[in-house]
Structures are given as C-alpha cells and as structure tokens.
Amino acid sequence: MAAGHHHTHSVEQTGQSPDFRKKLWIAFGITAFIIVVQLVGAVLTGSLALLTDTVHAITDASGLLVALIAATLMLRPPTAKRTWGFRRIEVIAALGQATLLLGIGVYAAIEGVRRLIEPPEVPAIELLIFGVLGLLANVVALAVLASSREANFNMRAAFLEVLNDALGSLGVIVAAIIIATTGFQQADAIAGLLIVVLIVPRAYILMRETLRVLMEFTPEGLDLDEVRRHIMALEHVIDVHDLHASTVATGLPVLTAHIVVKDECFVSGHVAQQLQAVQECVSKHFDVAIHHSTFQIETADIAAHEPDVLKHN
Q: Which of 102, 141, 160, 264, CA to CA, is 20 to 30 A from 309?
C-alpha cells in the first residue's frame, strides 16, 4: 500500500492568501469618516433617514473591522495543531458579515414599510448635502477594494459592506431630491426598500457559498463522477473509492481518494509513477485544478478488507 500527498509551493497553486490589510485599513478609515460625518448630519438635521444610514455605516465599519482581523489571522503560518493555519477564518468572517447584511435588510424592510404609512418630516437640502458626502467617501472606498473583491470570501464580504453603505447614501440623495422637488415624504421609505432589494440577494448568495465551504460540499465546478472516470481510465487502475473533495478556503480545493491498482504495480515497483499519473490527472484535466491531493494506492486485497462505508463513496 502506498499513500501520496501532492502540493506545489506557488502562491497561485496553494491558495496562499495575499495581504489585503492595507486596502482594508483604508476602507475602514473612510467608513469611520462617513460615520462621523453622517452622525453630525443626523444630529443637526434630526433626519431619521440619515440616522438610519449612519447605523448602517456603523454596521459596515464593524464588518470591515472583522474582515481586517480575519485578513490578519489568515496570514499566520500553519502549525502542528493548526495544519491549515487560520485560512478558513475568511469563510467564517464572510458568513458572519452576510448574516449581518441580511439582518440589516430585514430591519430596513420593516422600517421602510413603517415609513410608507407614517412618513417623517425630513429637511431635504441638509439631507442631500450629507448624502453626497457619504456617497463620495464610499466611492473612494469601493475604488480601493474593487480590484481585490473576487480574491476571497473575506474581500467579497468587505466590498459588499461598502457597497451596502454606498447604496444607502445614494438612496438618501435620491430621496432628498424627490422630497425637495415634490414634497413626497414617502420617497425616503421607497428608496430604503429598493436598497433592500439590491443588497439581500447578494448577501444570500455569499451566505450560501460560505455554508457550502463549511459543510465541505464538493467545490463548485468540480464533477466527482467525471474525476472518477478520468482516474479509472488510467492504466493499471482497477477501482476508485472513498473519493472526497472540499474547499478549505478561497483558492484551496482539496481531494482525497483510495486508488486500487493491479498487483503488478507493486511487484514492478512503479507505484510512484502511478501516483504521479493520478496527481497530474486531477491537477490538469478539470475546470477546478486540484493542487492539494492525497491518494492511497492499494491492492484489490487491501480494498476488500476495508470497511464497507469507504467503498460507497
């Protein structure tokens, strides 16, 4: 019996996380500035809309702070007790932020309905000024994070936090313009409900994807039946069982399997070549390249004595 563990050492192939802390610090600083500006505006104008948007900004800032902590922990090296380091912290952080965004969406929906029934009096001009200031600051933060938003779950969640606040500021601006020109106070509630429609689906998708990782589902885009067929097509391979694939963190899919080969492979001494063939197969032939794989190469006799539970996968 032989077991093989395969990985390479490049950043791209191992999924080693780049350092995004500088960008997150900038975005967090800008969001903190937005909080101060909008809080001052809410006090000066007495605007409920602006105060609500300030609460959103505080929530977004806390989300960015969580993302910053996660980005720091992700860079800590693996140890004997934590063999993957803190790589999965980005998934947990993103799940927490997605949950937070959904919570905000539910609150905004309830508050929006209430304001449709009982619209508050809002000073439109002052609301417009602070809305524009908030939007400009958010646009800068979005520009900082945009190039890295698809790097991992953590950066995507951080980008969504800022986008959420930017849409909130945009809603404030639109509502202020409508109120100033028509006196239609319900514009504030309608803008809030439109923001909910834009944000909640994105938060739901992020939550679904992070839960897939935490539940160790097969990585998106990887067909394990196709993987099995490719391995079975290799010379000397008799069977493939106990086949599992999951994702540790962004860019780090892993795969394990028991590969049954002909007895002659052990007699002739080319088990190592057989192992290499399997590793190359899973790292090159699929849309999701598996660069971190572990295979147990075994004879049919060994496979026959394994627990039945292993043979059904």
A: 264
Q: Which two structure tokens, joined as six digits, stand for 299?
A: 């004879």
Nearest-CA neighbor of 266 among 240, 287, 236, 305? Answer: 236
CA dihedral 53, 55, 56, 60 (to 10 degrees): 140
Among 115, 131, 123, CA closest to 34: 131
Instruction: Give residue 39's pLDDT.
Output: 86
Question: Tens digits of per-residue pLDDT, 5-63?
Answer: 555 444 444 444 567 788 888 888 888 888 898 888 878 876 766 776 777 677 677 77
Indicate if the pLDDT at residue 161 is higher than 80: no
Residue with tokens 């950043």: 11
Residue 255 has a pLDDT of: 95
Torsion 273-276-281-284 (CA) sign: negative
The full DSSP string for 193-227 is HHHHHHHHHHHHHHHHHHHHHHTTPPPTT--HHHH
DSSP letter at 8? -
Our CA angle for 74, 103, 141, nearest 5°, is: 55
At 68, the amino acid letter reads L
Cβ atoms of 163 and 65 closer than 8 Å: no
pLDDT for position 297: 92
Of the chain, the percentage scoring pLDDT greater than 70 comes to 89
Cα–Cα distance measured from residue 284 to residue 274, given in angstroms and rounded to the nearest whole number: 16
Q: Which residues are CB-contacts of 215 (< 8 A; sequence separation ≥ 6)?
A: none
Task: Judge contact between 128 and 173, C-beta under 8 A.
Answer: yes
Q: Could you give the CA distance from residue 196 to residue 218 in angstroms, rounded to a whole number?
A: 31
Residue 57, judged by CB atoms within 10 A of its CB (0-12, 13-18, 19+), counts as: buried
